[in-house]
Amino acid sequence: MIRRILFALALSMPLAIAACSDGGPSEISVEEPFARETIGAGTTGAAYLVIRNSGGADRLIAASTEAAVTTELHTHEKDGEIMRMRKVDAIDVPAHDVVTLQPGGKHIMMFEIMEPLKDGGSFPMTLTFEEAGDITVDVTVVATGGSLGGMDHGAMDHSGH
Ligand SMILES: [Cu+2]
Q: Tens of pLDDT along 115-130?
């Protein structure tokens, strides 16, 4: 009996190690979701967050929130001397990696924000991952120029469209 269990363990271990290396399911956690406050209704804004993946490769393919009419996944790229935002179909989240959406970089763009986002408030946002499915987070609203986690996200601001 014991011998049989040991044999089963010996068989399963290499498989477990293989699953850790690249394939296998993604294990997504979303940290520090925040958005800057907005003034007035019908404006645009952006949400930023950190995606931590302790499993296999995944992709963020959509985001939605009741706070805005439309949301898009955006990147920020240098076009000559000008930083331009570009809509992308997905944001890659490689296996065992951390992807940071931050001002001046990748972000979730929100169009036609219904109610002005106020410093200290929050709103729910659902992120859809190709493998991990839907993950809903509470996005904290911070003052203009602010961020979460005490990190310096750089001087580049996300100034409207
Ligand atoms: Cu944008």
A: 999 999 999 999 999 9
